[in-house]
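FAQ
Q: What does a multi-component entry look like?
A: The components come first, one per line:
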Amino acid sequence: MSHALAVTGLRGVVTVDPDGTQILGVRLTAGFLRISDAGLRGLIPPGVPLMGDRIEEGRVHFRVIYRGVEGAVQARPEVSPAGRLRLEIISARALIFPIPASMITFLFSSMAPDKPGIHAGEGGHPEIDLGEILAPAGITLPPLRHVHSGRGELVLTFSE
Amino acid sequence: MPDGIRINDAALEISPAALEALVGQKGADITLTRLDLSASEESLNTLLRGITPEGQTPPSVEISEGRVRLAGTKEGRTMGIDLKVGGLRLELTEGGLRLLSTGATGDGREA
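Then the predicted structure of the entire assembly, as tokens:
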């Protein structure tokens, strides 16, 4: 798998202004987004204290650095009621010491970066809204309907 | 242009290096691996109006079953091309692009 991201089954409409002089945007109605381990590592922008590591069956692994101490966090990918990708923190550790997941969600909700599409959702768990991230490029996404994580790949299903 | 250009099916890939550039807002390099688009007659005419230099009359396109009629005016002369070919296919060749007719013609042969 050499790609970071692969999009398949893409459906939608490219809208052009009535003069035909410019593309106004792309309104997508359906599609599958496949994120590889490399994609997970590359997707989160610099400045966010959460780094993608790898994807396994039902789990996504992240690394966090807090005050110079590196930790490992496991999250279960889910769909939030708002159609966002919710990363339910299920375990964490710093070096060999386990940390309560509630401490990670507290830290994330109090330090959630002010970046479009990255939110502290219910209970402080990270939520990613890809629609918000793509909106400045004129791309409108339908809600996230389903998420599946297998070994080395996270598959997100979007549809109206 | 209510329907614009419709994406019926498309697929694309982004490499790790391209994703890094995209996230860092340094550019975008996307590989399309599948493309199925459709555009209405109205959409095509709108696009033709958009690319025609100001002051010139834009060409027009009419699509009816199995044929496409292109019409344009330059210096008072009207030109028309009636493509009665059923279909067109764009192929990538070693020398460049190749556009060929594919549909059944009036004599029933592949054009």
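Q: Is there any commentary attached?
A: Sometimes. For this entry: The longest helix of chain A spans residues 101-111.
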